[in-house]
Amino acid sequence: MPLVSSLELIRKASQEKKAIPAFNIHNLETIQAVVEGAAELDSPVIIQSTPGTLKHAGIEYIAAIVKEASKKYNIPIALHMDHCPSFDTIVSCIKNGYTSVMIDGAQYEYDENVALVKSVVKMAHAVGVQVEGEIGKIGGVEDDMFINEADASFTVPDEAKKFVDDTGIDTLAVAIGTAHGMYKGEPKLDFERIIEIESLVDVPLVLHGASGVPDESVKKAIKLGMAKINIATELKNPMVAAIREVIKNPEENDPRNYMGAARDAVREVVKNKIRLCNTVGFAAEFRK
Question: How far apart are CA 47 and CA 77, in angstroms?
């Protein structure tokens, strides 16, 4: 199946109170783990890359691998650029076949942020590519960006509506108590804030920083309107643990062995997150 627009997936998930799982990948093995896990459970999936991953692996390599995976499996796969502050990088992603992008202008004042997002929306929509935006700062570490707790701020519902209206974005990431990376304590999500934002905006909502959030909290957030769930750190941790286990053997020098074990570990997390998002078998809805 060719790559699809993530907006098509997210809108349908939103209507059915499901969420499309979106996994941040880094290399061949993590891409394989995501698509294999999704195919096994017949779930649509969004594969995401960050600017750091593209710097490491290259846009062309990532896009080519994901395109080949989409041909191999009969499930809807979208390719998304996550947390990108650069207009030029987004243009390159779209030229290489990305079907959705997130422009991150959080470092700017509101008017400058809006101007940047609008410019991306105008360009991306002209070629049928969906745009995700974010209002409010989600704390923690994302790629090479760090926002400490003092600077993190919850999304103000009225500001969320204004941001959507001013920019024309297709999906909105909101800060409701999650954090990028893993939590040191138990996260407390502001469910009332989700309800209020969802009632004011007419675009699907996205939950960033879902790694480490208790399953019941994620399920409740989905029921209240979160239609895309981002997962990153919860893939990296089991991956490195699997590699460390294999290379305990001082004679081990075959990357196929330790990267294969890493792929297997990531695949299991992917399947668990798909079940959490309630999208097992959901791919069939897009083959009608």
Answer: 7
With cut-offs at 50, 70 and 90, classify the pLDDT of residue 141.
very low
Q: Which residues are paired to 227 by β-bridges?
A: none
Tokens linked to 219: 């399920």
Q: Give the residue from 288, 277, 287 showing the smallest Cα distance to 16.
A: 277
Q: Which residues contact 88 (CB under 8 A, 6 or more apart)?
A: none
As a dihedral over the C-alpha atoms of residue 214, residue 233, residue 140, residue 88, rounded to 10 degrees, the angle is: -130
Beta strands in the chain (DSSP E): 20-24, 45-49, 77-84, 100-103, 130-135, 139-142, 145-147, 171-174, 179-180, 205-207, 226-231
What is the set of domains in the chain, with CATH numbers?
Answer: 6-286 (3.20.20.70)
Cα separation values, 223 from 8, 14, 153, 209, Å? 19, 9, 23, 17
Whole-model pTM: value is 0.92
Residue 206: pLDDT band (50, 70, 90) is: very high
CA distance 265 to 6: 26
Contact of 202 with 164, CB cutoff 8 Å: yes
Instruction: Name the one residue in this structure whose structure tokens are 């059915």.
Output: 16
What residues are annotated to the active site? 82
**Are the C-beta atoms of residues 151 and 175 closer than 8 Å to each other?**
no
Give the CA radius of gyration of the chain: 18
Return d(Cα 82, Cα 177) in angstroms, integer: 19
Check residues 145 and 20 and name the one with the higher pLDDT: 20
**Relative orientation angle of helices 255-277 and 233-246, to the nearest 10 degrees:** 150
Mean confidence (pLDDT) of the chain? 92
| Rounded Cα gap, residues 26 and 36, in angstroms | 15
DSSP label at 176? S
